[in-house]
Amino acid sequence: MPKVPAHLCERALGMLQGGMRTAGVARAIHSYVRTVRRLRQRYRETGRTADRLRSVRPRVPTPAHDRYIWTSHLRDRYKMATTTAQVTPRTHNPSISAQTVRNRLREAGLRACRPVVRQVLTRHHRQQRHLWAQIHRHWSRMDWQKVLFTDELRFCLTRGDGRIRVYLRRNERYTEACTLEWERFGGGGSVMVWGSVSLHHRNELVVIAGNLNAVCYREDIILPHVVPFLQAHPDMTHKHDNATSHTARSVHDFLQDRNVSVLPWPAKSLVLNGIEIVWDKLDRRVRARAIPPRNVREHAGALVEEWGNISQQELAHLVQSMRRCTAVLNAAGDHTRY
């Protein structure tokens, strides 16, 4: 029931003493009739309109304890509330609970959530990422549309999603209805595909049998797909990452012999690759199908089909997403939200 301010309580009491009906007083102060009746009863018993004094649970941590809790969790962001509750210095109280620690942290604006998983970045990696972003920061739409973004990715038929939640009752944790079954390392098989996109162009999606090595990348990808496309569009630049199969000496020499221009790429810079947006769209489309693929063969067919269903207008976001260069630059080469 909402608490009535003190000045409205005094006003309501004056109306009641003046002979006004309870319902009329409730409408006048925008409250409930039952609230006004309790107000009148309280005045008859105590002679006052204020609430009775209530006994509340005493606050265990002192302001000094609160500062200690905040500081310790700011210094160590992975520290558990149970650990802090055990080591927090106490004077009069024997202990404080982990929930008390969580309450104090919530008051300070600190809440527990899953950490973002990113690659390990050394100082050299950060410097190279920052330098690359600084060079390409002012590239225009015309500059980015001359880049052919290429990459390969392995799509697993099944996967475990750490964000899934299940509602269960007591002692139902291990029942069949509440247990999520999945196999490690992409149980059910996986499909590796290679694709290349630009602002106005897109090559066919290539399904790779097994793993991708330097010989397979040169003979099955570069020679039949990349070289003919770049010969037809000589003003475009080839972009691939620093995977071992891409940076092998045989591949490097092969590209040089055919005068293929390659965009330099900093190590461990997956977030800078705009084609990741296309992979995400492709994965979402396959998983949203009315009849999901049941085996590797159906999965490969679904990937190829949905690749062709992605409109060229959607691929335009690939170029727009390269504003992430500014985010990397502002982070001095460190991790960003991309």
Automatic annotation (TrEMBL):
SUPFAM superfamilies: Homeodomain-like. InterPro entries: Homeodomain-like_sf, RNaseH_sf, Tc1-like_DDE_dom, Transposase_5, Transposase_Tc1-like. Residues 66-138 form the Transposase Tc1-like domain. It comes from the Eukaryota. Residues 147-291 form the Tc1-like transposase DDE domain. GO terms for molecular function: DNA binding. This is Tc1-like transposase DDE domain-containing protein. It comes from Oncorhynchus kisutch (Coho salmon). The lineage of its organism: Eukaryota, Metazoa, Chordata, Craniata, Vertebrata.
